Amino acid sequence: MSSTRHPHPLSGQVALITGGGSGIGLGCARELVQDGATVMLAARNVERLEASATELRSIAEGGAQVLTVACDVTSEQSVTEACAAANNAGKFTMVVANAGYGGGGPIHLTSLDDWNGILGTNLTGAFLTIKHSVSHLAAHGGGSIVAISSIAGPVTHRFMTPYDVSKAGLEMLIRQTADELGCRNIRANAVRPGLVPTDATEGIMTLDVILNDYLEQMPLGRVGSTEDIGKLVRFLLGDESSWITGTCISADGGHHLRRGPNIEPAMEMVLGDARYPAGPSSNS
């Protein structure tokens, strides 16, 4: 038997998107509102949130609303309030744990503040988002959580240790969530984007030697787009993926088949020989 697809299959449902004011978070929101979902955009930059909300309202369909809430994912109180706001907006069944940032530098020169900042946002922020959303999802009969990981989760990126560790930890958090909360019909998955042009990757995109190295590691030979990631996240949030949980899906042009990016040229330009601790080389 053939079935007719509902024109707005997410109508009546609410999604919370952390880091929703720009980049991949905004790309996810675009896909959701066109399928009828109400979105609660959560981020620290209120001005950017409102500008993004205005854009989304112009393409929203099926009764979708676009709402915003100021949120710092490193603050438990702030995350609690954001989750409550999403629940107050309607049937809160979808979460996109997207807030995060990266940084580069050698291990021996990485400050504790930089380490704590990246881990605090990328990993602890996702933990708090999941912790304070799952009771709402369970009360509505279940739901779907998608975390934005990275190819840096499974593939080493030299000179990006805090970021790599945060994404590897995030993927275990997702697997734990899926295993523990499947009994409440809550699914949890992660998406591993490759290089996608956003504000966060601007530094990489402007250095030809690094950009070209990224492209050489991608069998498909192009960078991604926020639409590429948004469509995959949309699939994982909806009923189309109702038997998928606890998995991490790469969307990276095949980059995961090869090696991580080589950002050493940038480190050499900035630090010279200091990019490594002083001492004899194992290659000498």
Automatic annotation (TrEMBL):
Pfam families per record: adh_short_C2 (PF13561)
PROSITE patterns xrefs: PROKAR_LIPOPROTEIN (PS51257)
CDD domains: SDR_c
InterPro entries hit by this protein: KR_dom, NAD(P)-bd_dom_sf, SDR, SDR_fam
Residue ranges annotated for the Ketoreductase domain, each copy included: 13-154
PANTHER family xref list: 3-OXOACYL-(ACYL-CARRIER-PROTEIN) REDUCTASE, 3-OXOACYL-[ACYL-CARRIER-PROTEIN] REDUCTASE FABG
Membership in a protein family: Belongs to the short-chain dehydrogenases/reductases (SDR) family.
Record protein name field: Unannotated protein
Organism, scientific name: freshwater metagenome
